[in-house]
UniProtKB/TrEMBL annotation:
The name this protein goes by in its record: FAD-dependent urate hydroxylase
Residues annotated as domain FAD-binding: 285-339
One example GO MF annotation: FAD-dependent urate hydroxylase activity
Gene encoding the protein: hpxO
Pfam families noted in UniProt: FAD_binding_3 (PF01494), NAD_binding_8 (PF13450)
UniProt keyword terms in alphabetical order: Monooxygenase, Oxidoreductase
Cross-referenced SUPFAM superfamilies: FAD/NAD(P)-binding domain
Organism of derivation: Roseovarius albus
Enzyme Commission code(s) on record: 1.14.13.113
Length: 393
């Protein structure tokens, strides 16, 4: 393996994971991002077992486990009938000990950033990336007209709003607002459970324990509430107490969590899209994570896909000195897994987030009963764990 000069656009989870893995293998890695000081955006997420494997491989796994919260089950009920709608256990036969690792995004960011810097990656803040040059050696373009030095390879990890990616995704009608609060002592909800409530498919609310932050030992919980972009404008304009009353009417267990929300600004909107680049690589340039493929978070795979992309790219560069061969190998390594999970995400999302009247009935009266018949519980577990098919071929 020949050492390469690599520039990474975007200090997101995928970009920093790639920086950690590639720096550890002797590549010279420089990461550019628009922030003045390192800071993540977002709230809670779940690192599935395949993502935890990547964190272990780059040396960030122990740190992540110290900060995150193990999740053994995802359980959702219809808010009026209390019928079980979603029930996925990570280890249904209690043999493997597998679980999700729920974290605040800032905690995960801290883990991968620390690991990347220890591995020798260079971080360049205050560099908003606006484009990339063509040619044998690629250069990143920055706001203000500056250019980076030429790189053997540029990795685009700038996320869903990537200025480098040609992906034109399809906007999804529903998103969510997310907030993080201290876990109340008066709740009876288990700390190892992702709990959700649904009202048909137009309303989904959830409570996800996410462990602690890097600078705060207090146990945190992420809350989410699904809504459309039009709903969000109306939500911002209405008194906060109206929303709290509506949420607690649907799910009384939310009350002690919502007491900690005192301002609309504590809830951050996130709206989703769906799409995949036919080929995420070109000469001297590769797109990873949301810059290459986007989906709703219904299967909880977003950060895991970025982690897997980063590790697969690292493996491909180890196996091939020729950059074109390495990028072709990378695309083939991830193609099947990405195709399946994009397909499953597109199929599952309308069942839980849409204005459909008949899809929730199909979900509640046919699909949910079928999901309890073996081997469906084991298949659902592997689907959520991320290895229904091999994540890296």
């Amino acid at each position: 393996m020949l050492s390469k000069d690599i520039g990474i656009a975007g200090a997101g989870i995928g970009g920093l994971t790639a920086a950690a893995a590639l720096s550890a293998k002797g590549h010279k890695v420089t990461v550019f991002d628009q922030f003045t000081t390192p800071a993540p955006v977002g709230s809670g997420l779940v690192i599935q077992p395949v993502g935890q494997d990547v964190l272990d491989l780059i040396g960030a796994g122990d740190m992540a486990r110290q900060m995150g919260q193990p999740i053994t089950r995802m359980l959702g009920h219809e808010s009026q009938s209390m019928r079980v709608i979603l029930d996925v256990t990570y280890d249904p036969k209690q043999r493997t000990g597998r679980h999700g690792l729920a974290m605040h995004r800032s905690a995960l960011f801290h883990c991968v950033l620390t690991t990347a810097q220890k591995a020798g990656a260079t971080l360049c803040p205050d560099h908003p990336v606006t484009g990339v040059t063509d040619g044998d050696k690629r250069q990143l373009l920055f706001a203000g007209g500056d250019k980076s030095p030429p790189f053997d390879l540029v990795i685009d990890s700038t996320g869903a709003k990537s200025p480098l990616s040609p992906l034109v995704p399809r906007a999804l009608p529903y998103g969510a607002i997310w907030g993080t609060v201290d876990r109340p002592t008066e709740t009876s909800l288990p700390i190892d459970l992702l709990s959700q409530r649904y009202r048909k498919a137009h309303r989904m609310i959830g409570i996800l324990p996410v462990g602690r932050l890097s600078n705060d030992p207090t146990i945190k919980t992420a809350l989410f509430w699904s809504l459309t972009q039009a709903d969000y404008a109306a939500w911002r304009a209405a008194p906060l107490d109206e929303w709290k009353a509506k949420a607690t009417a649907l799910w009384p267990d939310m009350a002690p969590f919502l007491e900690r929300i005192t301002d609309h600004a504590q809830m951050t909107p996130a709206f989703y899209s769906h799409g995949t680049l036919r080929s995420p690589a070109a000469k001297g340039l590769v797109h990873i994570g949301d810059a290459a493929h986007r989906a709703s978070p219904q299967l909880g795979q977003g950060a895991n896909m970025a982690l897997l992309d980063a590790w697969a790219l690292n493996l491909a560069l180890q196996d091939h000195d020729d950059l074109a061969d390495a990028l072709d190998r990378y695309c083939r390594m991830r193609r099947r897994h990405l195709w399946l999970y994009q397909l499953m995400s597109a199929a599952f999302t309308p069942l839980y987030q849409s204005d459909s009247r008949w899809l929730p009935r199909l979900r509640d009266h046919i699909l949910t009963p079928l999901s309890r018949i073996p081997p469906a519980p084991s298949v659902l577990s592997r689907l959520v764990c991320g290895d229904l098919v091999p994540p890296i071929r």
